[in-house]
Amino acid sequence: MPDRPDDNPDDRPDDDRDGRPDDRPAAPPVNLRRARKARDRAAKRAAADASAAAHGVPGAARSLAAARREKAARDLEAHRREPAPGSPGPDGDG
Fold first, then answer.
1. Which pTM value belongs to this model?
2. What are the boundaries of the region Disordered (predicted)?
3. Residue 3 pLDDT > 70, yes or no?
4. Separation between Cα atoms, residue 41 and residue 55, nearest integer Å
């Protein structure tokens, strides 16, 4: 039997000086240099993918996409309703 009550292991808190319970293992140490380099590599890879998406398209595909955009704009403009004769237009003149 312990002499003092603070020597009793049942009366001590369940955590060490760092605040973690005794039965939980510590997390593995993190190498900050490796983490920083991995983060930088991921950022460069994302920038490279975006650049490849913008500049890696063949000329024929770019011209086809431009032609489709122009046709869509023409089709949209063709469906525009003209103001009725004698009524004021969007500019206010009629």
1. 0.35
2. 1-94
3. no
4. 21
- Tell me the sheet residues that pair with 15: 21
Q: How far is CA 62 from CA 27, 68, 73, in A?
A: 51, 10, 17
Contact between 83 and 89 (Cβ < 8 Å): yes
Token output for 38: 């991995």
- pLDDT, one tens digit per residue, over 44-59 is 999 999 888 878 878 8
Which two structure tokens, joined as six digits, stand for 63? 């011209």
Residue found by looking up tokens 């593995």 in the block: 28
The 3-class SS string of 2-68 reads: CCCHHHCCCCCCCECCCCCECCCCCCCCCCHHHHHHHHHHHHHHHHHHHHHHHHCCCHHHHHHHHHH
Q: How far apart are CA 72 and CA 30, in angstroms?
A: 53
Decide: helix, strand or coil at residue 72. helix
